[in-house]
């Protein structure tokens, strides 16, 4: 449907929030911890899309590993879809590798699933579906 948000891995969430508030000229409107991922997120509204800052909450977090390997920067691009299960089935049938078999609960009231970066020229793709 459209790009819902881009996720940016940061090593210091507090200072990154201040920086992005100044950069985007809009306050962080929501912070949320996703304990299962070892991640704390901070969201900024920018028109139709959002920016999601991702900080690690522990040493085994996916964000800790990502930053150790690649440094801070773009972590994923998320596309809003109407029916995440249907999209997962469609992509799987075409040979794409999904990183989770079932949609999982992410930040911002979403069901989410990730597509392996090797299938998208190096970009980690997130599918997300809003749940109300
Ligand atoms: Co995301």
Q: Could you walk me through the main structural features you see in this protein, from its secondary elements to its overall organization?
A:
The protein has 132 residues and is of the alpha+beta class. 23% of the residues lie in helices and 39% in strands. The chain has an 8-stranded mixed beta sheet with strand order 2-3-4-1-5-8-7-6. β6 (104-106) and β7 (110-115) form a beta hairpin. The protein starts with a strand and ends with a strand. The site of cobalt (II) ion has 6 residues, from β1 and β5. Cobalt (II) ion binds next to β1 and β5.
Secondary structure elements and pairings:
Elements: E1 2-9, H1 13-24, E2 30-34, E3 39-46, E4 49-56, H2 62-70, E5 73-80, H3 84-93, E6 104-106, E7 110-115, E8 125-130
Parallel strand pairs: 1-4, 5-8
Antiparallel strand pairs: 1-5, 2-3, 3-4, 6-7, 7-8
The protein binds cobalt (II) ion.
Total strands: the figure is 8
Query: What would the average pLDDT be, to the nearest integer?
Result: 95
Number of helices: 3
Strand fraction equals 35-45%
- Overall 3D form: globular
Low-confidence runs: none
Order of helices and strands: EHEEEHEHEEE
Radius of gyration: 14 Å
Which ligands does the model contain, each kind named once? cobalt (II) ion
Q: Helix share of residues? A: 10-25%
Characterize the largest beta sheet: strand count, sense, and whether it forms a barrel.
Answer: 8 strands, mixed
Structural class, from secondary structure content?
A: alpha+beta
Report the end-to-end length measured between terminal Cα atoms. 18 Å
Strand order of the largest sheet: 2-3-4-1-5-8-7-6
């Amino acid at each position: 449907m459209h790009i819902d948000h881009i996720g940016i891995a940061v090593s210091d969430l507090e200072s990154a929030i201040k920086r992005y508030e100044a950069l985007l000229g809009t306050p962080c409107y929501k912070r949320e911890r996703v304990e299962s991922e070892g991640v704390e997120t901070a969201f900024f509204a920018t028109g139709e899309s959002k920016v999601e800052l991702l900080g690690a909450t522990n040493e085994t977090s996916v964000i800790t590993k990502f930053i150790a390997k690649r440094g801070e920067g773009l972590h994923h691009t998320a596309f809003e879809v109407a029916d995440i299960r249907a999209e997962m089935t469609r992509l799987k049938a075409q040979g794409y590798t999904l990183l989770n078999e079932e949609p999982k609960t992410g930040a911002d009231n979403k069901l989410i699933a990730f597509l392996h970066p090797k299938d998208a020229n190096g970009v980690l793709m997130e599918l997300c579906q809003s749940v109300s």
